[in-house]
């Protein structure tokens, strides 16, 4: 397990540095400890909550054959890579969710679980402003402490 976590951390850092994300690349060069901490947070979050999200995406949205899973993953990889090169911030999970919904619409629309899709859309709409609010409060609190 430790090897997998180290590999995931290394790939996260390398991907951020090489994907055209200049700000992240500069952070890695200037302060590698910050980048390692951020990467560890991403990997830790993936390990702790990733299985639940992956299970939900793979089993609750639509029935999926291996070829459909491959198509959804390739779509996600292409869109996230293109967005990174263009400097457009996107969520890999949101792109992957959309690709899986598209897979369901293309292969078996009647079997698409619209209740789960509604939960995803609600989460997308809520998380952006809530994250902004929490971040603003954190900045205010930290600046008062400093």
In short:
This protein is mainly alpha-helical and 146 residues long.
Plain-language structure description:
This protein is mainly alpha-helical and 146 residues long. It has a domain at 1-60. The chain is 84% helix and 0% strand. It contains six helices and no strands. Helix 1 packs across helix 2. The termini are far apart.
> How far do the termini sit from each other?
38 Å
- pLDDT averaged over residues: 78
Task: Please report the total strand number as a whole number.
Answer: 0
Largest sheet report: none
The DSSP helix count reads 6
- State Rg: 18 Å
Strand content of the residues, in percent? under 5%
- The level of helicity is over 70%
Gross geometry: globular
Which key terms come to mind for this protein?
mainly alpha, single chain, 0% strand, 146 residues
List the helices and strands and how they pair.
Layout: H1 2-18, H2 22-30, H3 32-59, H4 66-86, H5 92-107, H6 114-145
């Amino acid at each position: 397990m430790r090897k997998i976590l180290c590999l995931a951390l290394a790939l996260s850092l390398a991907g951020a540095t090489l994907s055209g994300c200049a700000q992240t690349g500069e952070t890695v060069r200037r302060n590698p400890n910050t980048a390692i901490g951020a990467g560890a947070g991403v990997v830790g979050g993936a390990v702790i909550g990733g299985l639940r999200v992956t299970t939900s995406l793979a089993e609750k949205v639509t029935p999926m054959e291996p070829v459909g899973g491959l198509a959804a993953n390739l779509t996600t990889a292409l869109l996230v890579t293109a967005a990174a090169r263009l400097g457009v911030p996107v969520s890999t999970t949101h792109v992957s969710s959309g690709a899986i919904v598209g897979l369901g619409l293309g292969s078996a629309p009647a079997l698409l679980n619209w209740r789960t899709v509604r939960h995803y859309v609600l989460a997308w709409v809520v998380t952006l402003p809530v994250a902004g609010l929490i971040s603003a409060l954190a900045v205010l609190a930290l600046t008062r402490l400093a």
